[in-house]
Write a structure and sequence with these properties.
- InterPro entries: AA_ABC_transptr_permease_3TM, ArtM/GltK/GlnP/TcyL/YhdX-like, MetI-like, MetI-like_sf.
- It holds the Pfam family BPD_transp_1.
- This protein is an all-alpha fold and 216 residues long.
- The protein has nine helices and no strands.
- The protein has one domain: MetI-like fold (Orthogonal Bundle), CATH 1.10.3720.10.
- 80% of the residues lie in helices and 0% in strands.
- The termini are far apart.
């Protein structure tokens, strides 16, 4: 294992460029999937039969598909349909669709965890369903969602490595290319990539713990 050779200036720069792209893809996917997840989670939670059932069907369909298949499918299908989407956005859209479905279930579970007595008290005090949802159910549900949401975000950041199938030059792809220069570079390159993934995900878990303590 040649750590000295791998950690020359050009190699480190190349891997860090992949790391920055991983962060960009991950952050965009977190934002988009969270918005989509909250919307579909609320729709799934509502007691409007048609809307709730439609949301449940979409969520279940996506959750039971492999993420790798979704990313690869979008990569192959979007451009022939006339959408000029680059590799980065193919990955972001695929991750957002899959993780949005996962987050929707987290949101629905969080909303369902709110005590029914508080909901009934809010309705009896004159609040309508939307006001009860906005002022009573969502604030309490969101606090309880923090741990599972962060766990999902950590999974999302790790899942960005699946974009290697469409040759997106993210962290895993960059580590593979750097390691391919020399057989003695393979293990150091992968260890460096593993350290970067760990640093990001562990930092997210620490932030989640602080947020959880503050919201208790």
């Amino acid at each position: 294992m040649d750590f000295v050779g791998l950690f020359s200036g050009p190699n480190v720069k190349f891997i860090l460029q992949g790391f920055l792209l991983t962060l960009e893809v991950g952050i965009w996917s977190i934002v988009i999937s969270t918005i989509a997840g909250i919307i579909f989670g609320i729709l799934r939670y509502t007691r409007i039969p048609v809307i709730s059932q439609a949301a449940a069907t979409i969520i279940d369909l996506i959750r039971n598909l492999p993420l790798l298949l979704i990313i690869y499918f979008l990569f192959l299908v979007l451009k022939p349909l006339g959408f000029d989407v680059d590799l980065k956005w193919s990955a972001i859209i695929g991750l957002s669709i899959f993780e949005g479905a996962m987050i929707a279930e987290v949101v629905r579970s969080g909303l369902k965890s709110v005590d029914k007595g508080q909901i009934e008290a809010a309705r009896s005090s004159g609040l309508n369903y939307i006001q009860t949802l906005w002022h009573i159910i969502l604030p309490q549900g969101l606090r309880r969602m923090i741990p599972p949401l962060v766990s999902q975000y950590i999974s999302l950041m790790k899942d960005t490595s699946l974009a290697v199938i469409i040759s997106l030059p993210e962290l895993t792809h960059s580590a593979q290319i750097a390691g391919a220069q020399n057989q003695s570079f393979v293990v150091p390159a992968l260890l460096f990539a593993a350290f970067l993934y760990f640093a990001v995900n562990y930092s997210m878990s620490l932030i989640a713990r602080k947020l959880e303590v503050r919201t208790q």
